[in-house]
Design brief:
single chain; two-stranded antiparallel ribbon; globular; 2 strands; 14 helices; mainly alpha
Length: 357
């Protein structure tokens, strides 16, 4: 095999192009909002690590990795326990030396990986899901959803929705899914409205502002500034660093990076971002349809659904269409762990598309 064949890219070129476009937008957004050159350089390094992780995942056959499904579930459980018990102040990540790693994205991906494999084995064996199988799967999803909800409600909801989508495609009966949703809604309501533990109080206050516009306790400060920044944006770019309102917006390069992009690069750029996520999901569906087996099909849908859902939630919050959350924008928000996760997950998706080529 010559060098040209070794470096030839056989994955989905559309998804690769989308990740490159979103990463370029990210560079412009962080360049304009970075407080120092060090922050910007660090972001460039994180983007490089993102694509390095993507390349490695693209090269490793996803079917080989499927043998590690049980290990991935155990690792996800260990990471979740360590984050909640020994994690940082917000219990969303683990500090290792001077580095702080946000773990929930990796936990969600590892759990989704296991769920996809679990369902694929049943489909391959042409066996119906027993009550024991369904119950065990539901317990896994509820435990991880509940654990994430203690510190990050929005990621827990995205994980739950992604799990439901995979289970629906994995031949779990609709009546079982409906019963599962009822049980999850029951316990979720108790946690959100019957306790003040974890993020339940913050969730209630944010929903209160969203429904009433009562900002007497300050939970709507970010959303007010975000909507104002978007409202003053034009159709065409004003230019990086030309934003006015976003300069005083907290988390302007993470939780509210879409606002930064819209105010400085215009509505045209924000529409491009939205279209990119929709195309990414569409391409994921095409990859799933052409996948050789059910595992590739379920995993491709899960990855595409997660990215699209995460992107739409972030955009919805920034535009005032959803209550405030701490959700980042895939490939665009500044952050090491979130970018690395996005790269690895996309690499797996590209590998699935390569195997079917």
């Amino acid at each position: 095999m010559n060098l040209r064949e070794k470096i030839k890219f056989n994955g989905d070129k559309g998804i690769l192009a989308i990740t490159i476009v979103l990463s370029l937008i990210s560079i412009l957004a962080v360049l304009s909002s970075a407080k120092s050159t060090h922050v910007f350089v660090h972001h460039l390094i994180n983007i490089a690590l993102c694509f390095a992780g993507m390349f490695i995942a693209y090269k490793v056959n996803y079917r080989t990795l499927s043998r590690l499904a049980i290990i991935s579930l155990v690792l996800a459980a260990i990471l979740l326990f360590a984050t909640l018990v020994f994690g940082n102040e917000e219990r969303r990540g683990i500090r290792i030396g001077s580095f702080e790693i946000q773990t929930f994205y990796f936990i969600g991906f590892l759990a989704i990986f296991f769920i996809s494999k679990f369902l694929a084995v049943r489909i391959n064996n042409e066996s119906d899901m027993t009550l024991q199988d369904v119950s065990g799967l539901f317990i896994v999803v509820l435990l991880f959803t509940g654990g994430m909800a203690l510190s990050n409600m929005s990621t827990a909801i995205i994980f739950f929705a992604t799990s439901l989508a995979i289970m629906f495609l994995g031949n779990v009966k609709p009546k079982h899914l409906l019963l599962f949703c009822v049980v999850a809604f029951f316990f979720g309501s108790i946690y959100l409205f019957g306790t003040d533990s974890g993020r339940s109080s913050t969730f209630r206050h944010r929903c209160h502002y969203y429904l009433t516009n009562d900002n007497s306790e300050g939970y709507g400060d970010q959303m007010i500034k975000s909507k104002a920044a978007i409202a003053r944006s034009g159709l065409l770019p004003a230019g990086p660093g030309q934003g006015v309102i976003n300069k005083n917006l907290p988390e302007k390069d993470t939780d509210y990076v879409f606002t930064t992009v819209t105010e400085e690069l215009g509505v045209s750029a924000s529409l491009l971002i939205l279209i990119c996520y929709l195309i990414l999901f569409y391409r994921s569906i095409l990859i799933a349809k052409r996948a050789e087996g059910p595992f590739g099909m379920l995993l491709a849908v899960g990855i595409g659904f997660w990215f699209c859902c995460q992107g739409l939630v972030h955009i919805g919050v920034n535009c005032g269409l959803l209550p405030a959350t701490g959700q980042t924008l895939p490939f665009i928000s500044r952050g090491g762990a979130s970018l690395l996760f996005a790269g690895i997950a996309t690499g797996v998706l590209l590998n699935i598309s390569k195997q079917e080529a």
